[in-house]
Amino acid sequence: MNTRNKMNILFIGDIVGRTGRNTVVKILKDISEEDKIDLIIANGENLSGGLGITKDSYDQMIKAGIEIITTGNHVFDKPDIVSYLEDKKIKILRPINYPSGVPGKGLTEIEIFGTKIVVVSLMGRVFINLSLNDPFLAMDEIIKDNPNKLIVVDFHAEATSEKYALFKYLDGKVAAILGTHTHIPTADAQVSAKGTAFICDTGMVGAYDSILGFETEPLIKRFITQTPQRFEVAKGPSIFSAVVLETNGLKIKNIKQLIKIIE
């Protein structure tokens, strides 16, 4: 069996709508070659129209080179995707701490160079308007069921305190906890002494001149008037936000933040 202790994993933040998808198609191959990437993971809950994911948008990202797509609270916004979530060939993960009986799966396993990698989609509960199971206890079960595996967690959460608390709780037990959801890249990428990588929020791939990837005027109007508005995915130059994880066995040696502005 071909074994190798070191590999590079690319994790891409929330991809927002057509602008985000086009950016991925445009630059992912070059990034993969430059950083010698062995596995590409991305959060795709905003792929279609900025809210939700469709089979077509999923297929486009898989064709571009993404291998596993994690999600969050918008995973079910496009009802048609539900029929695909149970398909074992479809690499879309819904948060694993949804209540039992919800369609889909919350983790997947892939083997690269003899190392078994478990990718987990997990969602926080603070400021999230959903009735979810405890993400801390959910991770306890995952760790118990997956010994001697490299575990990468997309923690889709709003509160920085909850993200940091999970990092400290799981330090040394998983390889990486990578935050998503707020679409704003944070400046705290780090690797602990125990070999666990962390970033509070990876950021997004979407329109640079926008509010979280959407046109600005409707969002401003909503704040001022407190009335519903129609949100549209913004166009124009984009931002690409991601991190590269350099592994060393089942631990992380280094985390490198990637932030690129694409014309």
Briefly summarize what is shown.
The protein has 263 residues and is α/β, with parallel strands linked by helices. The chain has one domain: Metallo-dependent phosphatases (Purple Acid Phosphatase, chain A, domain 2, 4-Layer Sandwich).
| Mean pLDDT across residues | 95
Secondary structure tally: strands: 13
Helix count from the secondary structure assignment: 6
Structural class: alpha/beta
Order of helices and strands: EEHEHEHEEHEHEEEEHEE
Distance between the termini: 43 Å
Question: Would you identify the CATH H-level superfamily?
Answer: Metallo-dependent phosphatases
CATH topology: Purple Acid Phosphatase, chain A, domain 2
CATH architecture: 4-Layer Sandwich
- Radius of gyration in whole Å, from Cα? 17 Å
Shape: globular
Key traits:
alpha/beta; Purple Acid Phosphatase, chain A, domain 2; 7-stranded mixed beta sheet; 263 residues
Describe this structure in words.
The protein has helices at 17-34, 55-64, 82-85, 135-145, 160-170, 216-225; strands spanning 8-12, 14-15, 39-43, 68-70, 107-112, 115-123, 150-156, 176-180, 190-191, 197-199, 204-207, 238-248, 251-262. The chain has a single domain, classed as Metallo-dependent phosphatases (Purple Acid Phosphatase, chain A, domain 2). 44% of the residues are buried. By secondary structure, it is of the alpha/beta class. Helix 1 packs parallel to helix 2 (55-64). The protein contains six helices and 13 strands. The termini are far apart.
